[in-house]
């Protein structure tokens, strides 16, 4: 059933379904038409009303107008998860038409759930779990049992231009999740991850309707913030657009003593005519954490998993912090040579400056909580440039329709860093922390005052694909390949200047793709794909004895088959897959209390995924699903761990998000979410594991009108039961779940 509010190709809304709006508002369609000024579909202003000519409006008409505003504002605030998104070289596609599993979470969901990081947005996805990076506070995402580093989150299909540790979601119109390998679609990920899936962000841009939106928010225990979102279109046919977003927060969050701050500023500009489309996005982001609660490691002699501390307790040290600054942006250009041929190009860049004093807490006795504190100060400077260009052509050869994609991409990345730490480690306790001052860091690598280059990455690729459609588009076959060349260099921390190379490889690979989609009906499809993943090898990071070691690149092969159902207001998909890659993790280094980053054997994941989203019945919306994963280790050293399960991969996960519009309170909506995660192994020997955990979230929002302007109030409670649990064991370290957290916000549109 078509959505009466969905924009058509010209950008204007289709004729509004007055009967539907009348039913929702409880008034007659004629009253709404009069209150809305007899909405016209050509974008022109309606004829002057009696009120405009000086006559006082009737009270009933004014009340009806406000009711219509409430209904419209309420619709804009609905949870929306769409099937489809940006598929790299294939462009923007509907989910039901492609042989891949992709969905998009929109800006209204981000706003209404009061998400402050990218990880909080992805708490809605049953196939994604979030943890921290090694020894720091950066978010890392697990899709199909494999990690996605912040370095490997894309923006509009372009790698290398996303802030690599924490992302402020207020700048983005969509957060898109692609499940599965994507080397052909997006190229090799520069950070060496994104084998099991890909996360892609889409910037906000000006819409046809003007936007002036003010939001204020509060998070327990004492963190406040807000945002301003302004968008306008100008000129003939609204050819020019501008969207400005400013967001920030500061204060103590729900973990004792942990303080967070962030500032995000985005300027997004675009222009179009009948044949050309240009957009320019420029952004600044600063985020930081002080006295953060870290993940914990288990000593080599620990025989059982320690019980989690009180959910709001902080065993971190007061001297821990990070401060992350990024300037990033991109330019996109598209030009139609004809109605069949389009040229496109994208250029992006990022300049990042990070510094942080991080804690590595190792528990040596799980019963008593006796632990040691490691520490590591790291300055990090990153300069990236990324580009993509190509041609997309549509034509027919007899009864067969073709969509040809051809082009290339390139990425240049340079990282400068150093480190300092203290030895020996100090003593503390997981359950009764011993807080100390910042330690004297006498052992260094590189120049911490002026970091030198430690790595350089050059990624070049060429791609070609042909999607052939048969039988009135009921069957589509995609075949293609990408040739990828990876040139990676590592440099010694302690050598002067640029230093001596300690890692160097220059390798090329061809990653093919085959995908098939069959439409039994227009609302259903069955699909299959064989696609490969290709990644730069991981680099040892954190407080490890082989810090900076660069491992060789690796490739993986994925097979996937699935089915989809999509009627617009409701969509569902079911997928079965197999994918594998080398297994990497951090392990204890003898009995010294130190750690080593290692790659050992092959991890083969098989699984099933169910995703459901949309309107189950009028006023009731659902988003969620379930995943099952069997993550086996193979080809391990000496065969000792063969057949064991991989570290930190839950055997199942379930998410369910519900919104219900209250029939007795116009503008009122209640929300709920449940997140359930299965057993996770902590070590490759499979002698330690995390138990199943479940978290419940509740919330409500109310939209009303004041001075003929819509206002939305929101209140939410995450982890209502204040459950105490270890959320993740990925990488071999434990991350505790957040405590009960209260959130309040208001939004008004001017």
TrEMBL record:
One of its GO terms (biological process) is siderophore transport. The keyword Hydrolase does not apply. Pfam families: Plug, TonB_dep_Rec_b-barrel. GO terms for molecular function: siderophore uptake transmembrane transporter activity; signaling receptor activity. Keywords: Cell outer membrane, Ion transport, Iron, Iron transport, Membrane, Receptor, Signal, TonB box, Transmembrane, Transmembrane beta strand, Transport. PROSITE patterns: TONB_DEPENDENT_REC_2, TONB_DEPENDENT_REC_3. The keyword Transmembrane applies. One of its GO terms (cellular component) is cell outer membrane. Its main location: membrane. It is found in: Cell outer membrane. Residues 270-720 form the TonB-dependent receptor-like beta-barrel domain. It is a multi-pass membrane protein. InterPro entries: Beta-barrel_TonB, Beta-barrel_TonB_sf, Plug_dom, Plug_dom_sf, TonB-dep_rcpt-like, TonB_rcpt_CS, TonB_sidphr_rcpt. Residues 97-192 form the TonB-dependent receptor plug domain. Residues 46-59 have a biased composition (Low complexity). Residues 1-33 form the signal peptide. NCBIfam families: TonB-siderophor. Belongs to the TonB-dependent receptor family. This is TonB-dependent receptor. It comes from Gluconacetobacter asukensis.
């Amino acid at each position: 059933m078509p959505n009466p509010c969905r924009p058509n190709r010209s950008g204007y809304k289709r004729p509004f379904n007055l009967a539907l709006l009348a039913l929702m508002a409880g008034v007659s369609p004629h009253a709404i038409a009069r209150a809305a000024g007899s909405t016209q579909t050509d974008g022109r202003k309606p004829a002057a009303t009696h009120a405009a000519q000086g006559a006082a409006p009737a009270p009933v008409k004014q009340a009806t107008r406000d009711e219509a505003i409430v209904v419209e504002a309420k619709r804009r605030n609905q949870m929306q998860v769409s099937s489809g998104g940006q598929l790299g070289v294939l462009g923007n596609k509907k989910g039901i038409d492609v042989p891949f599993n992709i969905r998009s979470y929109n800006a209204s969901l981000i706003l209404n759930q009061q998400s402050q990081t990218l990880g909080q947005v992805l708490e809605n996805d049953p196939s994604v779990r979030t943890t921290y990076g090694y020894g720091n506070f950066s978010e890392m995402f697990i899709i199909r049992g494999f990690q996605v580093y912040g370095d490997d989150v894309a923006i509009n299909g372009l790698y290398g231009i996303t802030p690599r540790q924490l992302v402020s979601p207020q700048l983005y119109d969509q957060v898109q999740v692609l499940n599965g390998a994507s080397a052909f679609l997006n190229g090799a990920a520069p950070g060496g991850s994104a084998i099991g899936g890909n996360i892609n962000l889409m910037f906000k841009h000006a819409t046809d309707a003007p936007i002036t939106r003010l939001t204020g928010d509060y998070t327990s225990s004492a963190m406040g913030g807000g945002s301003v979102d302004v968008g306008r279109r100008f000129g003939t046919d609204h050819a020019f657009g501008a969207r400005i977003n400013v967001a920030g927060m500061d204060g103590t969050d729900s973990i004792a003593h942990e303080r967070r701050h962030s500032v995000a500023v985005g300027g997004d500009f675009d222009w179009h005519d009948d044949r050309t489309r240009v957009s320019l996005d420029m952004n600044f982001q600063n985020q930081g954490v002080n006295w953060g609660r870290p993940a914990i490691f288990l000593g080599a002699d620990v025989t059982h998993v320690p019980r989690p501390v009180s959910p709001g307790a902080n065993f971190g040290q007061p001297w821990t912090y990070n401060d992350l600054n990024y300037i990033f942006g991109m330019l996109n250009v598209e030009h139609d040579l004809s109605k069949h041929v389009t040229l496109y190009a994208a250029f992006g860049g990022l300049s990042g400056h990070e510094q942080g004093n991080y804690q590595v807490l190792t528990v040596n006795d799980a019963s008593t909580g006796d632990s040691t504190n490691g520490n590591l100060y790291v300055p990090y400077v990153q300069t990236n440039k990324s580009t993509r260009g190509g041609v997309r052509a549509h034509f027919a050869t007899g009864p067969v329709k073709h969509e040809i994609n051809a082009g290339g991409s390139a990425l240049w990345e340079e990282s400068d860093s150093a480190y300092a730490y203290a030895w020996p480690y100090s003593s503390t306790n997981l359950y009764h922390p011993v807080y100390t001052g910042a330690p004297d860091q006498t052992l260094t690598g590189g120049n911490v005052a002026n970091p030198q280059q430690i790595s350089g990455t050059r990624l070049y690729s060429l791609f070609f694909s042909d999607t052939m459609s048969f039988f009135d588009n009921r069957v589509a076959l995609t075949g293609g390949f990408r040739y990828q060349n990876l040139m990676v260099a590592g440099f010694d921390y302690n050598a002067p200047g640029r230093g001596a190379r300690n890692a160097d490889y220059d390798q090329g690979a061809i990653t093919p793709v085959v995908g098939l989609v069959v439409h039994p009906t227009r609302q259903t499809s069955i699909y299959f794909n064989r696609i490969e993943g290709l990644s730069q090898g991981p680099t040892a990071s954190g407080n490890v004895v082989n810090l900076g070691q660069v491992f060789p690149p690796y490739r993986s092969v994925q097979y996937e088959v699935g089915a989809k159902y999509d009627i617009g207001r409701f969509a569902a998909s079911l997928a079965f897959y197999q994918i594998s890659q080398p297994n990497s993790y951090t392990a204890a280094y003898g009995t010294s209390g130190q750690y080593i980053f290692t790659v050992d054997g092959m991890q083969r994941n098989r699984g099933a995924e169910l995703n459901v989203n949309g309107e189950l019945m009028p006023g009731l919306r659902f988003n969620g699903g379930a995943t099952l994963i069997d993550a086996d280790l193979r080809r391990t050293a000496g065969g000792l761990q063969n057949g064991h399960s991989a570290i930190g991969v839950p055997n199942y996960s379930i998410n369910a998000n519900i919104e219900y519009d209250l029939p007795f309170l116009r503008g009122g909506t209640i929300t709920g979410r449940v997140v359930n995660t299965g057993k996770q192994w902590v070590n490759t020997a499979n002698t330690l594991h995390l138990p199943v955990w479940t978290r419940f979230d509740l919330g409500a929002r109310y939209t009303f009108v004041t001075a003929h302007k819509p206002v939305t109030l929101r209140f939410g409670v995450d982890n209502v039961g204040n459950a105490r649990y270890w959320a993740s064991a990925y990488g071999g370290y434990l991350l505790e779940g957040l405590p009960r957290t209260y959130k309040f916000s208001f939004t008004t549109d001017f």
